[in-house]
Amino acid sequence: MVIRICLFLFFACWALPAISQNCNVDFPGTAVRNFSSSCGGSPSGNLDLGENINMDDGDVFIFNAPSVINITGNLHLDAEGSGKIIIPAGVTVNVWGDFHLHAKNGGCTSANPCVFEIVVNGTLNLLDNLDNDIFSLIWSGPGTVNVDEDLKNSSNGCIGCGPSGCPTIQVDPWNCDDDGSGCSGGDFCAQINNPCSSDAMPPVINPTSNLVVSLTGPGCTQTVDWPEPIASDNCSLYSLEPSHPRNSAFPKGTTTVTYTAIDASGNTATRSFTVTVVDNIAPVITGCPKDITVSANTSCQAVVNWTAPTVTDNCLGVSLTPNREPGSTFNLGTTTVIYTAKDAAGNTSTCSFKVIVQDKSSPVFQNCVSDIVMNVNSNCSAIANWTLPTATDNCGGVTIAKSHSPGDSFPIGKTEVRYTAKDENGNSSICAFNVIIKNQILPTISNCPNDIILKGNEAGIATADWIIPTASTPCGEVTMTSSHQPGDFRAGTTKIEYKATDDAGNSAYCYFNVIVSEMEIEIDIGQLVTPDNNGMNDAWLVGNLEKFKDNKVVIVDRWGGLIFSATSYDNVNVAWRGTSPAGGLAPTGTYFYSIYVKSGQRILEKTGFIELIR
Known about the structure:
614 residues, mainly beta, Immunoglobulin-like
């Protein structure tokens, strides 16, 4: 049979299940017990928790199943320590009888206080009385507690709410009696009916995750923002203030930001998170030198200086370290100089350049040979010897190449002997001298002609011919030159020279003369001119004058007037035929002439008169 009971106070009705057997639960040692395993999960008559072995510190009883648990009798709790009852979310516990909480064995009293907690995440319906004599009873959880009859605290301790507040406890104020004393929360009945009258519950601040941000520069601080956290309170929130406002500049490192919430009753709560500013900005190096190229010194090294670069960083504490200092000595070749900048956060940057030491020095010859001068031997050559030159270099070994060796046979003339010294880096120098072989044997000229004596013609010219002499030399080549070749020669003595020169510059000579004598000037001057075209004395005839081209004839009348003047008179083309200067006929009469003739160095001058008869 099911008995239905309605509670008009809460406008609710429950169907009373059939009476079941009692369930007793003991707690030997620290234990967690639950309703489903301890009582079988079926409705129970009386439920005694700690009847024989009381609940003690750490003991827990959980109403875990089913979702509705009916206790048709009384719920009795015996405790001697700080235990706990839990009603999970989604679970409803109906107690049809009284709920008694008793202190046992001298535990949970003012002399031996304990804190027993009832956590209601679901629903607890007490259809009769709640009677407590445990020193300190704490209610917590977000669930609901309904007390139909009396709620009575008869201990000298407190009934109070946990740190997150009490569940919603519904009880008739006239049936609530809190006789506890010395409770910091005040009268429990007044608190649950007017929770904010004696609010001891602090606000709640939702958490903010820790922040990690990187510096963006310039400078060593970073402006940081975050979502504003939300605070709530069971009554009234008064303020929510941060230790550092949003969009503040935070230094490098970790800073704790704390939000403090204060409610209207002065209860406070804090929630903190960290802002970590990380320096990921590498130092900046300026003025990094360019590659440096220098020449090695006599020790095949070089001392090199440069202006060191500088470094800046967004934060303090930066160093700049080189692997080589200015003024260091560098060996031949290429060396990389590296400057490494490192800041306090471990960020690094580098700047590098190359120092190139080159060998620009050529090898140096010792005892380079002077020119060697020798005379030719019977083989038209000579064997030359000399002391071998040597060479040294500032950077290692030297190889020497040569064009000739001591003991070589050298021809007539000048031969350059060249020694070339080259070091390992391709630099070279030259030692050069000449071997000069002189040919002291003179050429020979054969068939040198004797003097040639000739008689010149009317112009004082004669043609001379002779056999060309020949030249020879025992060494090398010979060339022949002459001052004249066979041909025409003018009157007088001409010296003929033949010169034979060998390729050593030695010369031999052949001399002879061509002697031309002048012809005697003989002319036959006519005395009569009869220009009557009868073929006899039509022109004035001067015999043999045509043979002497260098002549001049002048004819004047008796008064000295010019009648005729001509050069190269030849009796035919150039001749006087009794004409006047104007081209007319000169009158019969006596005329006077002057004749000038030159042949070679000889000059003949004739004057006289002629008769012109018409």
